[in-house]
Structures are given as C-alpha cells and as structure tokens.
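User: Okay, second chain of the day. Same drill as before: sequence in, structure tokens out.
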Amino acid sequence: MRSTSSVHRAIALFLCALLVLEGAGMAGWAYADNPPEPSLLLKLSGASVPEEVARQRMAPMPQMLLRDLNVRWTPISAAPASPDTKGIIPEADDASLERISRMLADVLRRMEGVETIDASLLLTKAEGEARRFRLGEGTRPLLAEIFLRRGLLSLWEGNPGAAEEMFARSRALRPGFSPDPALFSPAFRESWSRAGSRPAPEAELLIQSIPSGASISIDGRPRGTTPGRIRVSSVVPVRIRLSLPGYHDAEKTGQWLPGDSDSMEWVLTRDRVATLGEMLAESPDGKGSGKLIAEIAAGAGASRVGLLVMEDRNGKTVARVFSTTGGEADPALLGVFEWPSGEYGTSDAAQRTARMLLEAGWPAANVSQRDPRASWYDHWWMLVLLGAIGAGVAVGITGSAGKGGSSGGSTGTIGVTF
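Assistant: Same drill. Structure tokens below.
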C-alpha cells in the first residue's frame, strides 16, 4: 500500500513539474535552439522570363525555404517613396488669400502714386506668396491680377513686348476677363488685344539628369529623354518621373504657370539590385559581383546572401543558385536546375534550393521548431504526459490486484487537476 501510494505521488509530482516547464517556456530551453541568422534572399529574373511568371513562381520561395533553413530574411532598402502631391502643394486658406489681397491693394496705391519700384517689389512678394499654394479658385484671379499689373509696369517703361507677354499670361489664367475701357488707357487696351492673338502660353521646362538618357514621363505619359525641353500646358500640379535601367526612378511634383520657364536637374541613384541582375546576366558564374553584393548585404544587415536567378535557356526555365557569406568575395555558384513544372513546381524548387544552401553551410532549421498551429498530439510534452498517465494506470491496476478483495483503509490516491 505504502509503495503504491509513493508511486502515485511521484507520478503526480512529475506531471506538475512537466506542466510548469511547459508553461514557463522551458521546452525551447531544453532543445537549446539557435537564433535564426539574418540573411538576405535576392530573387532575380532575366528579361526573357515574363515578369508575372517570375513573380508567381518565386514569390513563395522565401517562406518555403524557412522549412529547412534557420534564417531570418531581412529586407533590402526600399526605393524612394513617391511624394504626395497634396502634401507638397497645399491649398490656400482664407488667411493666406486675404494677405495676398492686401498686398495687391497696396500695389494699386503705389501705382496710383507712380511709385513703380515699390510696386514692382510688392508684386514680386505677392507672386511668391501665391505660388506657394495650389492653383485654385482663390489663387487663380490673384495671380492673373499680378501678371496684369506687371504688364502695366512694363508698358509704362516702354517695353510693349514684355507687357504683351505678361498680358497673355494673365489672359490664360482668367480668359473671361475684359478690362473696363473707363479704367484703362487706349495703349493698354491695344496691347491687351494683341496679347489675345498670341498662342496660348505654356510652361517650358529644361529637364536634365546625371547620367543622361533617362526616360521622362509627365503624369504617366512619355515625353522624351534627358536632356530635353518639355512644355507643360496644364496649370494644375503635375508629376514628372525619370526612369533609367539600373537606377531608382526619380520623381518630382510641381506646379508651373503659363509662360513659366524652369530648369531641373536630377542626380539618379543607382539601383544596386538591378545592377546586380545585369552583372549576373553578363557573367553567369557571378564573377565581379562580390563587392556589390557586399554593399547590398551591409545595407540590409544580413550575414548571408542567397541569390536565385531565373532565366530561359533553349526554351526551358532554369534557375541558378548562388551563396555568399560576407566579405567582397564573388558569390559561389551552387548549382543550376530546370524549374520543375506542375502544381508543386515551386515547392520542389524550394527543396532543391534549400538542399544546395545547406550543403554550402547555411544553418539548418532547428529540430524543435514547430508550427504553432500544430495539433495537440504533435507536442512532445503531450506524448510524455500520455506515457506518464499510462504508467500510472498500469501501476494502479497492479496495486489493486495485489490488494485482493480487502476493504476499508486508505488507498493513498492523489487527485491532480491539469
């Protein structure tokens, strides 16, 4: 009796200790898992592989490789984000519109007093203030008035050509405006009329880039290459984008008024990954790409870099697998295989890639790693628990048989809730 009770008590204490270990997360300690290594996986495809096909086949690869590798994928530096048009050019609020209107009222007083220099300075200040905001119903008439007053000053200075240019810009912003003959001189009305017969003024932009040869697009529409002069007829903000293979796209949102002239120059930033793809296309064995890969790895904080290159050869899709583990040495070509076909083609490709990386010294997935969604019977502690319960039942049966049919007295049974 005493012996049976001791066995039951020992089993109960063992089960309690087991549950405490599991609850405290000591199961992972028991296996002494190694932390995953920060690594980078670069997926590249040749020009002969359709982009959609390459994306569909290679997108699941990083997650699938985690089944066999003890790594943590690190992201590469993201390309510059596209600016927000509304955030760059704000709408004018009532206070700003009132401030500009007061400046123009002061300009009229200075012009009535023939204080042309002061009037010109105030017009420059008012125009700069108005250009800070998106062209809209509030700022459009103010800018049209500014150009009209500038034209008047030019006319007074004896420069009819400059006056007509300003009048044409004013008419483009306020096409329905007709000056009151009682308020303006015949010379003004004649110059205003000639400005109306001119072609509608457009903004002209000189766009340059280093290196040159970048494709220019305005609001998504191709407009030539750099260096180039581009005319912009729109008076609302436009998005100018430069694209050059091997470089990050450059983008700027701006607003130009009729008759504006501006010059812009971009220094394009090299896209390291795209450049790496070109190098691997020219050198299938990866020679000469070590320094560039080291730069990419350093930017991502990765200790290992794997490269998966997909391309077409003789009508078949093949994959090249490379590996590098720090330094500027050229990557090692681990192997080439034909991309498996069928429903499980990507899964098979992931297994082949993982096998190559493991043979190259990449860390294998920890034995104790498990899917947190696994069923209860997949946990090691549950199997031990069931074994302990079975042992307890066997001991209880043995104890009962040893007692025969005696009755009365304590059996020493301990109840455990878990």
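Residues 23-32, 370-378, 400-418 have pLDDT under 50 and may be disordered.

User: Thanks, on to the next one.
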